[in-house]
């Protein structure tokens, strides 16, 4: 009987566990997560007003409630206070790392370190109640904001900045973030891309949502659309639909609406300018198509006022102490999911998800990715099963001072969030700090509950 640890309870981790129990009738899987709550970016990365996508938690839940799968939250792997990779490997026949891409890419321009410049990842984590996040004064004295990037995350944070309190109140957004956004004085958001609209990565559905926000007008510079050399007939369907939406906005005359979203293209940030010790403006260079699908600088510049700058230019994996790491790609080297150390597949170590292939695709892309990794793991299984692996890893974790949060602990968090929402006259409202989450989870049941 194989005993497998899956590190990470987001979609890639859950799909890996699902593939394991579907393909091996005896395997036992522990899904470990450093957070006391499961679901990864589905809980902490999907915008709170996107209920349909967030409902994916229901299908991930069925995986974690499978009789041969066990959730162990609050278990850090690697780093200070965590279970060393080598020790974890000794507790299981195999370990699959599904730790995602936990940080963001930087712009690499002067002034990026100024207060008021944040990654979109940090902003999303705050309004999604990630326990590592805090209100870092994102919206303090902010009248205008710049979002750098042209993907769905950039659209999400732009929409959240413009959403009204009445629209956000029914969501599970933590009360502190809701209050801050409701009191915000942000009147204008510019979403800026260095390339043209034909190269934008947002989907049409996400884009159109910007035009549905009450009291907010979306403005597009007709000249930006004219610069793009791509003919609509040469573009994929999504890009064609995006251009149709953008052209519709470009043809609308400005209205007297109080708030505006301005979509700008062919502008490359070159410097963040300070005002009173924090961000006050962004200096952009105008770009132009280079004829090869990229852009080139034109030597013409413009400055855009902004007291908040959110960069949304991509995620990046981070090294996990004890695992090999390729700095260039931000991934763990692998062959069909098998971790590679010094050019050789490492026995019993595997990867799936973004840490395997980089931050690409949509949530569903994790299914075939997990399937490939599990196929490799099960092909190796006859030589990987070990008689020295313990029947249950939890006693060893407890002995090391690590008290896992089991499924009953997560269910207690769910109940507490529903009760909090009821007290506030809302639906479910997320708990947003470590102490409260752990106190609620560990009041529910002992962490040493035996494996089924």
List keywords for this structure.
single chain, 452 residues, alpha/beta, 21% strand
* SS elements, strand count: 18
Give the structural class: alpha/beta
Assembly type: single chain
Q: Counting H and I runs of at least 4 residues, what is the number of helices?
A: 17
Note the beta-strand portion.
Answer: 15-25%
Order the strands across the largest sheet as they lie in space.
3-2-1-4-18-17-16
Low-confidence stretches: none
Cα-to-Cα separation, first versus last residue: 14 Å
Biggest β-sheet: count, sense, barrel?
7 strands, mixed
Rg (CA only): 23 Å
- Mean of all residue-level pLDDT scores: 93
Q: Helicity range of the residues?
A: 25-40%
Query: How would you describe the shape?
Result: globular
In short:
This protein has 452 residues and is of the alpha/beta class. It contains 17 helices and 18 strands.
What can you tell me about this protein's structure?
The protein is of the alpha/beta class and 452 residues long. The protein contains 17 helices and 18 strands. It has helices spanning 11-23, 41-44, 51-54, 57-64, 85-91, 120-127, 152-162, 165-168, 175-182, 204-209, 222-227, 237-250, 354-357, 366-384, 394-399, 407-423, 434-442, and strands at residues 3-7, 28-32, 69-72, 94-97, 103-104, 117-119, 144-148, 188-192, 216-220, 259-264, 267-275, 278-289, 295-305, 308-311, 315-316, 334-335, 338-341, 344-351. The strands form four sheets. Strands 3-2-1-4-18-17-16 form a seven-stranded mixed β-sheet, covered by helices on one side. The chain has a six-stranded parallel β-sheet with strand order 6-14-7-8-10-9. A hairpin with a 5-residue loop joins β12 and β13 (295-305). α1 crosses α14. The two termini are 14 Å apart. The model has no long low-confidence stretch (mean pLDDT 93).
């Amino acid at each position: 009987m194989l005993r497998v640890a899956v590190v990470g309870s987001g979609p890639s981790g859950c799909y890996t566990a699902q593939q394991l129990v579907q393909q091996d009738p005896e395997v036992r899987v522990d899904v470990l997560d450093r957070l006391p709550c499961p679901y990864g970016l589905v809980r902490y990365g999907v915008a709170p007003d996107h209920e349909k996508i967030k409902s994916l938690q229901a299908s991930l839940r069925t995986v974690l409630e499978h009789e041969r799968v066990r959730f162990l939250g609050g278990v850090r792997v690697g780093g200070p206070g965590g279970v060393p990779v080598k020790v974890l490997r000794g507790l299981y026949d195999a370990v699959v790392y599904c730790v995602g891409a936990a940080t963001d890419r930087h712009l690499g321009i002067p002034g990026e370190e100024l207060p008021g410049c944040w990654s979109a990842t940090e902003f999303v984590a705050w309004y999604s109640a990630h326990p590592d996040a805090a209100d870092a004064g994102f919206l303090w004295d902010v009248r205008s904001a710049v979002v750098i990037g042209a993907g769905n995350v950039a659209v999400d944070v732009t929409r959240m900045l413009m959403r009204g309190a009445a629209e956000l109140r029914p969501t599970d957004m933590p009360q502190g973030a809701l209050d801050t956004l409701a009191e915000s004085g942000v009147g204008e958001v510019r979403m800026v891309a260095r390339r043209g609209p034909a190269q934008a990565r947002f989907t049409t559905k996400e884009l159109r949502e910007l035009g549905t926000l009450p009291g907010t007008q979306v403005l597009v510079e007709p000249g930006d659309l004219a610069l793009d050399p791509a003919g609509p007939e040469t573009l994929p369907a999504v890009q064609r639909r995006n251009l149709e939406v953008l052209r519709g906005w470009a043809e609308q005359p400005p209205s007297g609406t109080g708030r505006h979203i301005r979509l700008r293209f062919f502008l490359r940030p070159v410097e963040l300018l300070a005002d009173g010790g924090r961000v006050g403006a962004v200096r952009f260079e105008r770009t132009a198509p280079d004829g090869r699908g990229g852009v080139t600088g034109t030597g013409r510049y413009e400055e855009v006022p902004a007291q908040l700058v959110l960069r949304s230019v991509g995620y990046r994996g981070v090294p996990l102490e004890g695992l090999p790491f390729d700095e260039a790609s931000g991934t763990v080297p692998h062959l069909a999911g098998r971790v590679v150390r010094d050019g050789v597949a490492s026995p019993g170590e595997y990867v799936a998800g973004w840490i395997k292939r980089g931050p690409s695709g949509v949530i569903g892309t994790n299914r075939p990715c997990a399937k490939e990794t599990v196929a490799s793991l099960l092909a190796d299984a006859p030589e990987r099963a070990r008689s020295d692996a313990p029947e249950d890893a939890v006693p060893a974790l407890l002995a090391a001072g690590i008290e896992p949060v089991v499924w009953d602990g997560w269910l207690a968090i769910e109940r507490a969030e529903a009760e909090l929402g009821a007290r506030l006259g809302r639906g479910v409202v997320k708990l947003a700090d470590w102490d409260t989450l752990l106190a609620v989870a560990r009041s529910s049941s002992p962490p040493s509950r035996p494996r089924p």
